[in-house]
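Notebook p. 47: complex prediction with pyridoxal-5'-phosphate.
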Amino acid sequence: MHMSVSPELTKQVSEMSLPEHLGFGRIKAPVMFRARCTDGVWDSGELLPYGPIQLDPASKTLHYAQQIFEGLKAYWVSSEEPLLFRPRVNARRLNHSADRLCMANVPEDLFMRGVEELTRICKPIIPRHQDSALYLRPFLIGVDHDLGLAASKNYEFYVLASPSEVFHAGTMRVKVERQACRSAVGGTGGAKTGGNYAASLLATNTAESEGHDQVLWLNPEKRNLIDELSGMNFFAAINNKLYTPSLNGCMLEGVTRDSIIKLAKSSEIEVVEGDLNIDDVLDAISNGSCTEAFACGTAAIVSPIARFHDRGKNYVPEYPKGQIAQQMRNKLLDLQEGRIEDSFGWIEVVK
Ligand SMILES: Cc1ncc(COP(=O)(O)O)c(C=O)c1O
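Predicted complex, structure tokens below:
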């Protein structure tokens, strides 16, 4: 049964006008979902007007960073109803993050309820042209407010929605980060928690001031294997095979990464998951065997890497706009936007 919604909230959504250029994550739906967990028991959640939330200044989330989030999209381009792409994988990843941060798990049904109810009420503001979607941002915070260093017992789970265009990373110029680390061996790199992103900002700002767009993070153990970018996973095409770093606990298990691996295999492209030594990749670009590289994630889908920079030297793949990248992007969007049949069982329709 669908959630009952106040007529004012429904009216507010239907009267919202969207600007011509949405950008990514800038425009917020006037409604959000919230559920509360009190001493291990979740309520069933509700839709509320979007707005500031009340937090005690001593909340655990503010002091000890008990905070995790997710990102997924509802697409409504070529289908009769909005389509969610693998939302249950996000639900499971949220709980994987919750375990690492010692937080309560969000029951999958509750996660789905939040995501689906919000998508449903937001139907009037889901952008319906190609390369745009309703971006959904579930997040979980610990709200106990004594200052002792311990896990919270009480939590709030929210879902926000943002009518958005694809995040245009452009053809990226990437700096290999040889100094800073974003995550540690045994740390929280495999969880989607705010601290990982805060840890990435300084190196990214420095890289930007030097004329690059993004940082390529190396594994913190030996600093010679590629992990990922700050918000995207990494692929390289070498001798017509696709290589991507295997999951090692220091990087996020991307839904897009997993989907590309499966899509590539179904298109007879060989995929190798394993250690990807940065020096080998740069050598392969120099000798022409690595023809393209790209990053992938929910926000940007697939972003070709036009140039690598490492210790004063630039490396430009032969196909800086990426042919396999383009193929993977098209296949993924055709599925997500409902133009081709979903033989993988990845799509959930929001009726
Ligand atoms: C650090 C990091 N790696 C990879 C990804 C890609 O994950 P997904 O494909 O699930 O969006 C993201 C985006 O959420 C991310 O923040």
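Notes: DSSP finds eight helices and 18 strands in the chain. Helices lie at 7-14, 60-64, 87-100, 108-121, 194-209, 255-266, 278-286, 323-336.
Next step: compare against the earlier run before touching the bench.
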